[in-house]
Amino acid sequence: MLPPFLHILTFFLAFQTANSWPDGLCAILEYSRAEYVTVEERYYGPYIKLSQYCFGDGFDFYVTPRFPTPDDVRDGTETSTIFLAVLDPHKNPVLFAEVKHESWARAAASRHRADRHMRTRFFALLYDCPMPRLWGLSFLGTSVRIYVGDKVTHKITPPPPPVSPPYDLYVPPPDLLGEEWKTDVLSEQGFRKMKDVVNDIISHTQHGH
């Protein structure tokens, strides 16, 4: 029988040894982002496929949808956001992703909302993460911003933008977070960043968290 860490590595070998995304995966995402349909019809299947490619087809992790929270309903985002989580066999989160339409990147107000949504997810999930860090991916179309939460300090990186209360009346400046979703996940840089995230998760799995 293989040692546990070798057992884990065999399922991640394709992603770990690759230098770019497979052509087939790129084709799926590129075709999907060109469709004029709802965000769920456009991206749900492709991002499930991307997550499965990153984490392999073994049983150390699995990808699952998460359903709208009361906050989502109040905020009106339950029909405009796909929420996925990567869990370990004990149903503990090691990574989560929010996927929204690419139009969210165009205005400061929507970028600010996307950032707040990610931080709200961390508050809900960080306590249950079995590793020192919980990773979060915010996709606006195929543009990605990567977050990480520290299990001990509860600090989330990158830090939130400065906001002047009252929050419900806050009007963000036009350039707020304007450079934060500039990485296309399908690009070489996007591939490298995703590999860094997955490598961090795997390394903690190999060393017993």
Provide an overview of this structure:
By secondary structure, the chain is an alpha+beta fold. The chain has one domain. Helix content is 41%, strand content 19%. Strands 1, 2, 3, 4, 5, 6 and 7 form a seven-stranded mixed beta sheet that branches. A hairpin with a 2-residue loop joins strand 4 and strand 5. Helix 1 (4-17) packs antiparallel against helix 6 (188-206) and helix 2 (23-33) packs antiparallel against helix 3. The two termini are 22 Å apart. Mean pLDDT is 86; it is low at 1-11.
Main attributes?
alpha+beta; 6 helices; about 40% helix; globular; disordered N terminus
Q: In a few lines, what is going on in this structure?
A:
It contains six helices and seven strands; from the N terminus they run αααβαββαββββα. With 209 residues, it is of the alpha+beta class. It has one domain.
Produce the secondary structure layout.
Elements: H1 4-17, H2 23-33, H3 39-55, E1 62-65, H4 70-75, E2 81-87, E3 93-100, H5 108-125, E4 133-140, E5 143-150, E6 156-157, E7 183-184, H6 188-206
Parallel strand pairs: 3-4
Antiparallel strand pairs: 1-2, 2-3, 4-5, 5-6, 5-7
Helix pairs in contact: 1-6, 2-3
Low-confidence stretches: 1-11
Report the mean per-residue pLDDT as an integer: 86
Strand content: 15-25%
Please give the largest β-sheet: 7 strands, mixed
